[in-house]
Amino acid sequence: MAAFRYRAATTAGDLRAGVLEAGSAREAMDSLRRTGLIPIEALETKSAAGGSGKKAPGAAMRQALINALGELAVLLDAGMTLDRALALSVDNASRPPLKATMALLRDRVKEGVALSRAMKELGVALPPMASAMAEAGEANGKLAQALARLAETLDYGEALRRTIVSSLIYPGLLIAVATGVIGVMLLFVIPQFETLFSDQAVKLPFATRMVMGASHLLRTYGWAVLLGLVALVVFVSQAAKRPQTRRALDSLLLSTPMVGPLAAKAETARFARVLASLVDGGVPLPTALGIAERSLNNHVLLQAVGKVAAGLKQGGGLSRPLAETRLFPAMAISFIRTGEETAQLGLMLTRLADVLDREVRTTLQRLVELITPVVTLGMAAIVGGVIASIISAILGFNDLAISS
């Protein structure tokens, strides 16, 4: 199924426009006829514009959208009309996908569709909170402020994402280099000594025999090991798409020492910032909670917040049911409880997100500082052990030759 933007006319001559899902343009036309409309056109919305929702935008596209939303907020705050502001955003867009996205918003607004509904039609190009905050801004007449707050919230999320990724690059490169060095020694260096040691295999030290055995195993079955690793990665990635498997992996992640609390803080920071923006934007708390839960990537936390949101619709506070899940940091519960008691929930959620962001960055920095010497020492120990095993065997031969 694909998404199609359509234009159609009623029997009275009025124009209608919207988005519907169909297998092809002809099926979309037929669907419009069955509803009593006279179809004019049905164009498939491309994923570049976010219409089909098949592929989420990359980091560069997300940042470009954030900048465009911030620019749109400035234009509206300056008194410019929405359609004119969108037209300028289209002209200022340098990336073709961004230009297509903003053009889609401009066209839909010109057709009389609200900006919040047009945002919702973009699918994964914008998170669910975007349309919700725009709708709240439209309701209270403060669309510019709502878009500015939306851009700021999305920018915070991108900043945290970049911090996590950049913090993991150096340890990843260090591990890759260490693995490469050890592989080169086992594949090319150790075989040079096999001829020398071939007649004295029984007399070789245990460490030397182990190293030479590992080298022989890697040269003989290395391709099978590589294929096995590739198959394992493919199997795990496919299995992770299943809800049960994904939930089990997320539960394992949260229970892992050091990593689990860090992941919980990062998820809670993003969730708190999105929820704060929605609450401050005038979105009702039950609705805001239902939208903010989609910002969670961990399925265990997402399911827990979903249950809390369902209970919140029946009345009650937020801090107590969140505390009962025993999944969120104690600091988060404390901040939320204070916000409820002082009627400053949005403010306390924002402060909570700031505090957790700082803790995540500090913890990541400490982990990187810890991992770097550990990996370095581990690589040095392995390489030194390989060299020592060869030298000990050679020295053993020299002692044997001298004694004889």
What does it look like?
By secondary structure, the chain is mainly alpha-helical. Among the domains are: 1-44; 167-404, Receptor-associated Protein. It is built from 16 helices and three strands. It has helices spanning 25-34, 59-77, 82-92, 96-110, 115-121, 128-140, 143-189, 194-197, 206-239, 243-255, 259-280, 285-292, 299-312, 319-325, 330-341, 345-403, and strands at residues 2-9, 15-22, 38-44. A three-stranded antiparallel sheet has the order 2-1-3, covered by helices on one side. The longest helix is centred in the last third of the chain and has 59 residues, at 345-403. The radius of gyration is 29 Å and the shape is elongated. 33% of the residues are buried. The model is unreliable at 47-54 (pLDDT under 50).
Topology of helices and strands:
Blueprint: E1 2-9, E2 15-22, H1 25-34, E3 38-44, H2 59-77, H3 82-92, H4 96-110, H5 115-121, H6 128-140, H7 143-189, H8 194-197, H9 206-239, H10 243-255, H11 259-280, H12 285-292, H13 299-312, H14 319-325, H15 330-341, H16 345-403
Antiparallel strand pairs: 1-2, 1-3
Helix pairs in contact: 2-3, 2-7, 3-4, 5-6, 6-7, 7-11, 7-16, 9-16, 10-11, 11-12, 11-16, 12-13, 14-15, 15-16
